[in-house]
């Protein structure tokens, strides 16, 4: 099988049992869209769940019907660090998303109209609970590993805390144990950008046959900024102009302005991301604070986690800096947990977790070898 | 079981089975792996170098990428978290060996330290007769590119221990082939190339 040649087709899981959400809301029924890669082995011991980041989706590897490669296909696929010749890899779109799982653009069964702003607030814990239904549906008793970057890393942490016996390894990449005031502030400005767009219509823009493109584009521009490092922007754009000389107007004069505008517009129009989903995902991030249930003590929070951990951070990531990963590592060390930590040298800021990097790949591959070796041990154990 | 150097063999002999061990500058974690296999120890390695980190992970060892100059170990670990904190051939490369020694004996009950002896006769001879900074098999660097920024002799190290109220529990010396000879026992500071110390805080 040649690399990335397989076209992946998404599947749906319809859950008829109600989901009691952290906010107190009840979702009577819901659907999760997901993709799988590789084969589940006989004792279902080689399954891996990937958790996506803020604007991510279920298409993590392979190519879709339009030929688009998955968002983490650099690291997941045949012969890749997460080797789909060895592992059965699963990725679902989070509840509240806009790529096929039940979310604000879905029809509310109570009203027969799209949920829009009436979709209940989701939290990381709700995502984990809904993904646990997917685990049961796939006949997997225990994930060999859970892997996630950024928001996905937080979801992995939540899994390890809430369902300790359902995973053997947790790979928490470019994440944090909770958002800082600055992180929340950035999210709030992004939300305000969306909500103050005249086309927002209090979230009922679909019923009004419009979308708050301007606001969503602005939110994306701001978000995108926090993914890049100062150094990287300096190298990539510097003060380079689009024209030969300054125009003294408010057009996109500098290359960096043009780039950001393009990113914003692409997100809001071509990628057709739903504004209500963006609001929900940023709120879910803000709410994420598993230690709040344990006297704000992260060590206590992770006391019951039995998974083995790999924590990874990137040197120029200022959105979720290495120091935030140190907090996670420290709490795990306090519990004498099995934990390894790598701080990857990269100039790409938060975005680095998605980009090629020799050291990152080496660490990822070495750790996945360990995950794999334990599967083979358990298989041999079953045979003897 | 892979073969290990006599230096590591000597260290192993100083470690009680089932103990908790932290290895600073653990490299590819060969020593930790050996101690896990033979002594059923638990613990962690710490290593700054990215490639060595990967090698340690490949060996299935829990390794924390960390800079020993940042007082990271006191940030990460509580007092007396380990039975032993080991540091082989790294004392001389850190910015403040004296402070790191304090940190090691804070998070560990005992420390095992090995370092190249700058008092070895070959070093002394090069300085006396050539008038140049020594370059040997154990220390194959030029003065300007050496990572070994804080060289010391056995006597220097023991003076530091004395000053800090640190007790030397065990001491051994080996040559660059990591073997031990009679001469080294008689005149360690002249004939020993690598020093091995097991130390702890003096109980007053």
Could you characterize what this model shows?
The complex is a heterodimer of chains A (384) and B (204). In chain A, helix 1 (124-137) packs across helix 2, helix 3 runs antiparallel to helix 4 (213-227) and helix 3 runs antiparallel to helix 7. Chain A is built from ten helices and twelve strands. Chain A has helices at residues 124-137, 151-162, 181-195, 213-227, 230-236, 255-270, 275-287, 298-301, 322-334, 358-383; strands at 11-15, 19-20, 26-27, 30-37, 47-51, 76-77, 82-83, 88-92, 145-149, 169-173, 308-314, 339-344. With 384 residues, chain A is α/β, with parallel strands linked by helices. In chain A, helix 9 links the parallel strand 11 and strand 12. Chain B is 36% helix and 23% strand. Chain B has helices at residues 6-13, 30-39, 50-58, 72-76, 97-107, 121-130, 154-164, 182-186, 188-191, and strands spanning 20-24, 42-47, 63-65, 82-88, 108-116, 166-174, 194-201. Chain A binds chain B through residues 326, 329-330, 333-334, 336, 338-345, 359, 362-363, 366-367, 369-370, 373, and chain B through 42, 44, 50-51, 53-55, 57-58, 60-66, 75-78.
Oligomer: heterodimer
Biggest interface pair, counts = A-B, 22 and 20 residues
Cα-based radius of gyration of chain B, to the nearest Å? 17 Å
Element-level helix/strand string of chain B: HEHEHEHEHEHHEHHE
Elements of chain A, N to C (H/E): EEEEEEEEHEHEHHHHHHEHEH
Overall geometric form of chain A: globular
Radius of gyration of chain A: 21 Å
Count the DSSP helices of chain A. Answer: 10
Q: Which regions of chain A are unreliable across 5 or more consecutive residues at pLDDT < 50?
A: 380-384
Largest sheet of chain B: 7 strands, mixed
| Count of beta strands of chain A | 12
SSE blueprint:
The complex is a heterodimer of chains A (384) and B (204).
Chain A: E1 11-15, E2 19-20, E3 26-27, E4 30-37, E5 47-51, E6 76-77, E7 82-83, E8 88-92, H1 124-137, E9 145-149, H2 151-162, E10 169-173, H3 181-195, H4 213-227, H5 230-236, H6 255-270, H7 275-287, H8 298-301, E11 308-314, H9 322-334, E12 339-344, H10 358-383
Parallel strand pairs in A: 5-8, 5-9, 6-7, 9-10, 10-11, 11-12
Antiparallel strand pairs in A: 1-4, 2-3, 4-8
Helix pairs in contact in A: 1-2, 3-4, 3-7, 4-6
Chain B: H1 6-13, E1 20-24, H2 30-39, E2 42-47, H3 50-58, E3 63-65, H4 72-76, E4 82-88, H5 97-107, E5 108-116, H6 121-130, H7 154-164, E6 166-174, H8 182-186, H9 188-191, E7 194-201
Parallel strand pairs in B: 1-2, 1-4, 2-3, 4-5
Antiparallel strand pairs in B: 5-7, 6-7
């Amino acid at each position: 099988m040649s690399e990335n040649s397989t076209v992946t087709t998404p599947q749906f899981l319809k859950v008829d049992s109600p989901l009691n959400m952290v906010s107190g809301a009840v979702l009577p029924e819901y659907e999760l869209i997901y993709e799988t890669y590789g084969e589940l082995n006989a004792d279902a011991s080689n399954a891996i769940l990937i958790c996506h980041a803020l604007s991510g989706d279920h298409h993590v590897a392979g190519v879709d019907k339009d030929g688009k490669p998955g968002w983490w296909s650099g690291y997941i696929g045949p012969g890749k660090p997460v080797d789909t010749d060895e592992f059965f890899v699963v990725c679902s779109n989070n509840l509240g998303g806009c790529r096929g799982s039940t979310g604000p653009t879905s029809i509310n069964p109570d009203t027969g109209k799209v949920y829009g702003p009436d979709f209940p607030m989701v939290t990381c814990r709700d995502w984990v609970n809904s993904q646990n239904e997917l685990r049961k549906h796939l006949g997997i008793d225990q994930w060999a590993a859970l892997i996630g970057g950024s928001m996905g890393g937080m979801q992995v942490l939540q899994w390890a805390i809430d369902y300790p016996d359902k995973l053997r390894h947790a790979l928490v990449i470019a994440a944090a144990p909770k958002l800082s005031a600055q992180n929340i502030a950035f999210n709030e400005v992004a939300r305000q950008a969306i909500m103050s767009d005249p086309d927002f219509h209090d979230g009922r823009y679909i019923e009004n046959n419009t979308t708050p493109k301007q606001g969503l584009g602005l939110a994306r521009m701001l978000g995108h900024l926090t993914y890049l490092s100062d150094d990287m922007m300096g190298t990539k754009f510097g003060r380079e102009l689009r024209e030969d000389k300054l125009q003294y107007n408010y057009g996109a004069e500098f290359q960096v302005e043009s780039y950001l505008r393009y990113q914003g517009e692409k997100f809001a129009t071509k990628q057709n991301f739903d504004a209500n989903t963006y609001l929900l995902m940023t709120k879910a991030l803000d709410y994420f604070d598993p230690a709040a249930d344990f006297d704000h003590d992260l060590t206590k929070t992770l006391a019951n986690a039995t998974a083995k951990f790999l924590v990874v951070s990137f040197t120029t990531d200022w959105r979720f800096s290495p120091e935030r990963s140190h907090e996670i590592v420290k709490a795990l060390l306090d519990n004498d947990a099995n934990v390894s930590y790598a701080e990857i040298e990269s100039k790409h800021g938060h975005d680095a977790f998605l980009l090629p990097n020799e050291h990152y790949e080496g660490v990822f591959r070495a750790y996945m070898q360990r995950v794999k070796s334990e599967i083979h041990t358990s298989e041999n154990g079953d045979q003897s | 079981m892979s073969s290990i150097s006599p230096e590591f063999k000597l260290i192993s002999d100083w470690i009680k089975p089932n103990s908790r061990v932290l290895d600073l500058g653990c490299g590819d974690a060969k020593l930790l792996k050996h101690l896990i296999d033979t002594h059923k120890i638990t613990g962690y390695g710490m290593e700054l170098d990215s490639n060595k980190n990967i090698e340690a992970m490949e060996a299935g060892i829990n390794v924390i990428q960390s800079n020993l100059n940042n007082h990271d170990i006191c940030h990460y670990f509580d007092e007396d978290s380990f039975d032993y904190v080991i540091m082989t051939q790294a004392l001389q490369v850190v910015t403040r060996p004296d402070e790191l020694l304090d940190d090691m004996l804070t998070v560990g009950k005992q420390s095992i330290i090995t370092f190249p002896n700058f008092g070895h006769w070959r070093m002394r001879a090069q300085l006396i007769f050539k008038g140049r900074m020594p370059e040997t098999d154990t220390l194959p660097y030029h003065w300007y590119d050496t990572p070994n920024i804080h060289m010391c002799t056995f006597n220097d190290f023991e003076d530091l221990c004395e000053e800090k109220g640190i007790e030397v529990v065990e001491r051994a010396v080996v040559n660059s082939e990591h073997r031990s000879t009679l001469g080294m026992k008689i005149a360690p500071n002249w004939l020993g190339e690598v020093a091995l110390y097991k130390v702890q805080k003096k109980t007053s």
